User: Fold this.
Amino acid sequence: MIKEYLENNLTMEQKGFIDFYSKSTEQLLNMLDNSVINNTFKISLPVIAETNPTIVKNFTWIMDKLNMGKTMATGNFAEFTFKQELLDKNEITEWRNQAKLNKMIMRRDTKSYPATLVKRNGKIYNDGLDRSGTLCTSKNEFMLDTDKLVEYRRPIIQNIIKSIKKSIEKGTITDTFFADEANYLHVANACVDYYIENKQLRYNSEYNVQDQRGRAIKNILKRVGNYIAFKDFRAMLIVPEEKCKVISRGNVDTLNSIYLFIAELNGKKCLGGTIEDKVRAGKQCYFDGVLPRLNLKDEHDRAELHELIWLERIYSKLDKVFNSKEGVLWDIPIEIDHSMLK
Assistant:
């Protein structure tokens, strides 16, 4: 935003004086734009000064001359503050909200990353150990069942707000995103609107780094609606068509796995029973149309919304399987807890 303002308000001579389109100046201006997101309008200058001290000197001089900002320096520390009053308040809020949205939504990252990255004490290191398998999983693509997102929009947004708070507590999402008008509710609504309006978009987990114990930390954890922290979104995942398997009434083993998952979602773990007992229980749940009875105004019941969404989608897809002679592409991921296999 500040970058755009300066581009529109500086003369060609002034832009040339600060080498406006150079990488160093672009870095400085990007830092200023990020300061708008955090509502500080301040940046620390030493990092850029190490790369190009002339740019910093010329930039701060002309900003002071044009009364667009001022620099405070003490010892080795220097800080530049842009004059916030030059920007329209409503435009600041709108730009900040859009910038926050761009950072918070899921995306499809196609860049290549090293398979040797490890995170220790908040810093990324390259330890030389190749983990190509876990890195490849981060590029698995998925879509969202936006029809369910529309149908259960209000309780999903309430669950998003709850999950954002938990993510902030865990440190996977920074609380500076919610320090002003762009609060939890706004971000939740904006993200849901984006996903609904972009029904055909594909997403992935972006990339993985490993922690000290070898567990994958997926970058998607930073995004609102990720399938790890947001169970309702996990229940709305769609597998892309080229990755799907056609199933029909004759695929008994596949159907039994689905019935087993149905039993799990309905709480039919049948402790002490065999796997066959659980499969029969899940199959009966499907034919009886058993669904959780939830009061979605109640926070405790909303915590089980993902089970309702998952079951409704599975039942609808199974109806198509049994009404089709050729079979149906199964695009709903299922996950079976280890306790169901005992």
Summary: The first strand starts at residue 42 and ends at 44. The CA atoms of residues 163 and 230 lie 7 Å apart.
